[in-house]
Amino acid sequence: MIQVNKKKLTRKNLSIIITASVLALLIAAYVIISAVISAMSGSPNNPKPPEVMEEIGEAVSGGSTLAYPSFKNSEIEGIVVDSHNGRFAMYRSDEENYFFFCYEDANGDMQIYYPDIVGAENQFDYTDLYATESETGLNIYKLTYLLTSVTTLTFDQRIELSSDSEERQKQLNRYGLSDGDKETLVVLRTDGEGNKIKYNIEIGDNLLAGAGYYYRVDDRDYVYTCNTDTFKYALGGFEAFLHSRVVAEGLAVDNAFEPYLTTDYKQWKNTLVSYDKDSEIQELVKANSKVTVTASALAPVYDEEDLEDKTESNGYYSVKTSKMSFDLASYELLSRYDRLVSTLVGRPLGIYSSDPLLATVISDTLEVEFGEGDTVSYVYTVTAVESILCESGEYDTQGACASDYSDAEMIRVTYNYSVGGAAGNTVPRHAVIDLSDGSIAEADRERLAAAKIGEAQNISFTVSYDKNTTESRNVKYVISEIALIYNVGEDGEMLPAETVGETSIVTYRHYFMVGDTVVGEQDSTTVDMSKLAEGNYLKIKNVLMGKSAGRLEPVTAFEDVTYLQSLMDFVTYKIESVDYYVTSEMITSFEFVNASVRDSFYGESLYINTLPSANSYRNYALNSSACEMVVRLLGGINADGNTNNSYGLMGTETVAVGLTPDVMYKYGLYANTVYFELPRGIQVESTGNSDDLDDYTYLDTLGFTIYISDYNEEDGCRYAASDMYGVVVKIVDKGFDYLDYSFVEFWARRSLMMVDFKDIEEVTLDLYMDDVYGSYVFDTVCDTIWISGGEHYSEPVDGGTEYDFLTVNVSSNGQSSGNKLVEYLTASGADYINMADVYNKVAEEKTGVEQWLSIGNDTMGASYFKELLFVLYNIHYTGSLTAEEQAEGKKTEKIMSISFTVDGSAKDTYTYDFYRIDDRRVMVSLYNPGYENEVSDFYISTFAFKKIISNFDRLMNGEQILPDLGYDS
Amino acid sequence: MKVNLFKGKSARTKTFAVISVLSVVLLLGLNLLITYLGLHGSAYVDLTPEGLYTLTDTMERECAFIDELDNDERCVTVTFCADPDTLIESTMARVIYFMALKMESRFDNFEVETVNIAYNPTAVAKYKPTSLSKINASDVIISYGDRYRVLSIESFWTVDANDKLWSYNGEYKMASIIKSVTAVDRPAAYFVIDHGESYYDTENPESQMSLDNAYAYDLLGECGMEVKTLKISEIDKIPEDCVLLIINNPKTDFTVDPDRFDEFGYVSDTEKLDRYMVSNQGAIMVMRDYDESRRNPLPVLDAFLYEWGFDFSEARVSDGDNYIANEAGTRTDVIGEYNTDENSYAYAIYGDLAAIPSAPSTVFSDAGYINCSFSDSATVPEDGALSISRHFATLFNSYDSAEAHTKDGEGNYTELWDKGALTLAATTTRRAIDSYTSEYSYSYLFCVNSPEFLRSEYLGNGSYANYDVVCALVQNMARIDEYASLELGGTSLNSPSVGGKPLVDTAISATPSFVYNENREQYVVDKYGLTSGTVIGVTVALMFVPVVAAVVGLVVCVRRKFL
């Protein structure tokens, strides 16, 4: 039986129970009442949206009210935006599940954003061009953000528009939805049943409080509000959707090698000179500059098929007046640009709209179609003369004819032609006729010369073309390098092969030549040798067969011949102003060079100086650290370099699209130009002991011309763009300071010399000082020997160690300030003395005992000669000299000269001449017969100079070389 | 209540009690005796194969002069800043301590004392010339009269590149320092005077120029240097006793003879400076005027300084935010920003100040700025050398708010030339490493682009830190002890080729000997063990007799009881 201990409830306990019950009741009431109120009216922070009006197309989804029913992102076919920041659109690709972009260019025309990188990079993913959302940390495409926003277009409030048109307009004005203020976003959709649906969204002002917009859909009688950033990116301009990339990222398979193994890096510092409307005297356009003009252009079209909206039916394709740039330096070898070049060079910058400059660029691209035979006759009928091309310029004065000008050379005409009685053209044709062209009868030429501009003409003449006599053009297909050779194994696996065989898969590089001129860039092609059976393919096969991978002496595989008409194609520019020109100075040029083919003298450098031989800086070796720093920067490799990813050069924000002259000018992109090549498909060809000693090969290269502004103090950044991506991005990284330095300041290697003793054939030393003088030749021989048991063998022996054994024989011209070497040489009467003997004899004199001194595996003489070379290698240029100081230096007496011959030929002899230009500075002139100029940009300290002489003196007196000794006595 | 311990006890008990007490007293006495003998006698046996606890004959010979010093109540005193037991506990300190005790017993004019600076920090206050000076428990002070040197225990040892001790070089160090503090000819600081420089004229101390440099003169004296003057064009080389060469605001350039440029043996004035700098103990201070209108051009001196890392601007530095107001209102009395990077050279000089938020300012009056002329980095190898380098280090930058202006057409500093943190003072350190001993030797070249640096009122104004900073800088640069060791010869002690006693076991790490234990509120020793071989040997030796006695006793007991 259970016993309960009954106790009387005290008053105190009763109070506690009552208080607790009341509290519990109050809490429960609060919770319930809050929930009820919230359900009825919405919370203050999230007011209840209005009831949806399905009859006007609104819908509800997930508790949100939508301006129209939600649908899947995949149903969107396109979005067209017309905002205050310009027009742009994005359309779903037909074949691929991605959107491509279109934008409005400076001329108001819609352009497809299809940057060169898309075509240049194999299997390029267009979505790589999409910018990602970074503010939210979601790392999704901004495009996806927009798509999601418009497929679930929410609204929070609905404001009814008045039926009174005046009041309605006031309302629209109030919300920024009037015709002048509103921005539009059109959504093109195809639903699951294939119905085409279009939503026209008009976007007004931002909400007065908080984020969000007023907007309207399909001209409804309502204005909606949304409290989100739905349209933030859409209205922010097209640039916001583009990734701010300038240089492509590396391929995972290449292990971030691409930037390091760059096949070409060039850099120019540019100077922009522009028209100064406030100045009476204008700068004259310089030769080889890049000129920007305001001009229109005309170019003939040949077939009706070529006629588009913008093409006039008069047979011309016209480009309306806009800014155009001409790189005159690139036209140097292209004679067809001569007229344009002569029109611009020496021309004052300024406005020419009242009397525009005409300049016609002539090209010989009109080919003769012979058909089956070797001869054919063309009948031309000139119907109008458009302009007269004289040496002094081009004129289109009404009523003028070529005979009026003593220097007339050509005329630009409108014509029709027929071949064998059949009309050759369907639209009027245009061409340039050379009035001195002998293939046209003289009488016909006279008639043409007399034909007046502005008058209808009907001048017919016949030109007969014969394959044997007609001017022709040869196009050569040249193979320059075999990159990779594979054979296909029995199981289909790819097996590397030494030489090209009948069934090999070969990747080779080639280019085209017209005449003797290389046209375009090198390209890579991969072929299956077994399928090259006929025609030009067979010729390519014959070139490749039996060859090994590597660079070739360029071989012409085949050439095609085209025959040219007497009439010439052209483009005519009508220049209304010459706005500015840009001159360029090449700062540096280099490329990675494989270990096995590195220059003997500059052999330790990964990068070879490829400046033109006429550039004096070609003599200097490059600072590899500087080169590496720059390629790492452009390749997007972290400073520590310990990464397998090269992310490419990226900015923080895309600010413009299209590298038009206006954009280039606005962002200061003319300041610096860099050309940077990334090799792709890299493979290790042969392995050394380290990365620095490997040889590499590659499948293809990607070249980027990068334009970088100077540092912009106001914005605290630089702007950069590349031709491959066509966008201008903002770059905050200060690593680009190197662009501000000259070759001497940044790129030149500061060590005096660095050459492997094994490559040295001869060192000559000439001393011209008052108290130290003489002339010496150190003839070096480096033999490979094998050492076993302390014995030296000239042939390999079991267990022997291979060793490069150096022998140094020294000769002198006998004129010397005195040393042991000359003393022994004179005493012996021999032509030379072995360096080892000098040390042995000195020791013998001291000890009275015959000596044979060695250090390690070398004789003491050879060992200290090597030590002396190390001293030289560790001498660094202290500073650079101005041109005036160099000139003054040359006026002083030369006090020392050291020459290194690295392979026995004069071409590979590097000579250093030393001039003491003042108390602390000794100018160093470097000369190599292979280059055109001697350079004297640097000096070494007097301290270093004296150390060189001291140690040579020690060597020739059989004394220890002391690299760390400051001054000798 | 009185208690008689012997009351009621038997005579046997009483006898045992007395014997017990006497035994305890005897043991204590024996302990004290052995300790005394260990410290002052020769109870310790040097078991180290290197002879670390043995004073070599060479050392005794080199230091024999100590007893020949004038006995004017001064003696060479070696002060250790920790108690003997703490010193003995530390492997690194113990060796030095015993060496000092040996010398104390060997030489009459030599004294060893220990001071626990944790309990009595003011005991060594007289060895702190400035508020920046710091003495640690692991320091050793060697003094003679009012001359002294403060060295760390680590400096008596040679370390390798991996921070491992590999040689005890204490005898050489001790001898060279003693020679330095007892030298009759004190090391000297020379003012160069033949290019219109400003200096303290001892023959005319009342001249304005002397008054301008009076604080610098006092400072050099306090740093243990005699102040002299020097006409560099009249000498062949910088004097041997020169531990600091001061070129203070030269008005004309250093002289050269261009006709002798094609003469190898020609030594120009700047080459004398250069030879002094590359001799492993050079120390030069240059105060240069950035304003060319106040002096002649200095292309020769500038080229020399450029070679050593200094490229001087002609722009004047001003700072609208961090300045001390002057009468002209130019804001050109610029406050230097303390570098708080503990690994920097600057921090090594004035780190204690940099660590204080309200530290007094160091002011640069009427200064230009300096760029580093080394091309790639702040460190360059010395031309032709294998193991010598030159390091450019900023001592003071201006604050970011500073601007530098050049003169306009009317001669006023209005053209903005540069802005931001501009280098106001810097030092290039030439560091050479001895390929045998792995010991570093240093030369220093300090430059400031201001004519006011030593003359400035700020040097004598206790409200600013200029005096403390310059004092610390001078003490760092002036190689006073190397001056003494030149006389001694760098490798003259212990070994003809190495110098020092190379350790058989180099496993000891050269980490600080003493660590302040906050819980115990005192310095404790980072214990280093003896080598394992030595431990085994000593243990066997010590245990041999007791073990043998125990075994014999056991055998005797067993035989008596059971056999």
Count the E strands of chain B: 23
Note the beta-strand portion of chain B. 15-25%
Average pLDDT metric of chain A: 87
Helix percentage of chain A? 10-25%
The N- and C-terminal alpha carbons of chain B lie at a distance of: 54 Å
Global shape of chain B:
elongated
Largest interface: A-B, 40 and 35 residues
Fraction in beta strands of chain A? 35-45%
Largest sheet of chain B: 10 strands, mixed
Estimate percent helicity of chain B.
25-40%
Assembly context of the chains: heterodimer
Biggest beta sheet attributes of chain A = 13 strands, antiparallel
Structural class of chain A: alpha+beta
Rg over alpha carbons of chain B:
30 Å
How many strand units of chain A?
A: 51
How would you classify the helix and strand content of chain B by structural class?
alpha+beta
Q: What is the residue-mean pLDDT of chain B, rounded to a whole number?
A: 83
| Radius of gyration of chain A, in angstroms, nearest whole number | 40 Å
Give the CA-based shape of chain A: globular
What's the gist of this structure?
The complex is a heterodimer of chains A (about 950) and B (about 575). Chain A has 17 helices and 51 strands.
How would you describe the overall organization of this protein?
The complex is a heterodimer of chains A (969) and B (563). Chain A is of the alpha+beta class. Chain A has 17 helices and 51 strands. In chain A, the strands form nine sheets. In chain A, strands 14, 15, 16, 17, 18, 19, 31, 32, 33, 34, 37, 38 and 39 form a 13-stranded antiparallel beta sheet that branches. In chain A, strands 40, 41, 42, 43, 44, 47, 48, 49, 50 and 51 form a ten-stranded antiparallel beta sheet that branches. In chain A, a hairpin with a 2-residue loop joins strand 28 (505-514) and strand 29 (517-528). In chain A, helix 14 (835-847) crosses helix 15 (860-873) and helix 15 packs antiparallel against helix 17 (942-956). The N and C termini of chain A lie far apart (119 Å). Chain B is of the alpha+beta class. Helix content of chain B is 30%, strand content 23%. Chain B has 13 helices and 23 strands. In chain B, the strands form five sheets. In chain B, strands 7, 8, 9, 10, 12, 13, 15, 16, 19 and 20 form a ten-stranded mixed beta sheet that branches. A four-stranded mixed beta sheet of chain B has the order 2-1-3-4. In chain B, strands 14-11-17-18 form a four-stranded antiparallel beta sheet. In chain B, strand 22 and strand 23 (522-525) form a beta hairpin. In chain B, helix 5 packs across helix 12. Mean pLDDT of chain B is 83; it is low at 526-531. The A-B interface holds A 623, 625, 745, 750, 768-772, 870-872, 874-879, 892-893, 895, 916, 918-921, 940-944, 946-949, 951, 963-964, 966-967 and B 254, 256, 258, 261-265, 268, 270-271, 274-275, 278-279, 299-300, 303-304, 306-307, 373, 375-376, 380-388, 432, 435.
